Amino acid sequence: MNKRNPAASHEAEMIKDFRSRPRRAAAYLNAALEIACEQNDPSLLLSALATVARARGMSKVARDATLQRESLHRMLSKKGNPQWRSLFRVLRALDLRPRIDAA
User: Fold this and answer.
1) First-to-last CA distance in the chain?
2) Which of 12, 24, 49, 69 maximizes the CB count within 10 A of its CB?
3) Which residues make Cβ contacts (< 8 Å) with residue 45, sequence separation at least 6?
4) Per-domain residue ranges for the chain?
5) Which long-range contacts (CB under 8 A, 24 or more apart) does 70-75 make?
6) Alpha helices, DSSP H only, in 1-103?
7) Mean pLDDT, to the nearest integer, of 31-44?
């Protein structure tokens, strides 16, 4: 019997791409931030940040950000409400810097 591999999800392909192309991950986060601001929906940014964190490895990001892995998952969930300090530590763990532009 011939077993077929199921198609990879879009998120899985993005994670694979972001592992080898960190600049693309940063561009993705900038686009997500712009859309989140336009739609007044911070969960869009948290979801994008979670995808980038998965590409780096959630355990590694949590360790580098001095957070518990479970707290990181909860913080980056759609209902997450991270404190700025925690979010800043995650950005630093991902070697990213926030940028503010005039609208």
Assistant:
1) 58
2) 49
3) 29, 32, 33, 36
4) 10-93
5) 75/46
6) 10-20, 22-39, 42-56, 58-64, 69-75, 84-93
7) 94
